[in-house]
Amino acid sequence: MVVTLATWELLLPGSGSLKDKRSVLRSLKDRLARMNVSVAETGMQDLRGRARISVVFLAAHSAQADSILASVDRLVAGARGAVVVANNSERL
To answer: Burial, 70: exposed, middle or buried (Cβ in 10 Å; 0-12, 13-18, 19+)?
Structure first.
């Protein structure tokens, strides 16, 4: 079994308020949750133009983990209203 943890730092250029930020993140987190991964906002909660989200999931083997991570990364990179500034992933 392979546990993978991935984190993305996002720039939210259209977020004029925390309410706008929450709207963008809620949409992204809902779409990620449909991929059967656990997702949470893990930093920068008080900054309206920045966010950090983390995803963790369990896979049977490394190839499956790579495939899931690639799909999640594409979804995050294509998120409306968010620009990926940095990302990191690790196997636990």
So the answer is: exposed
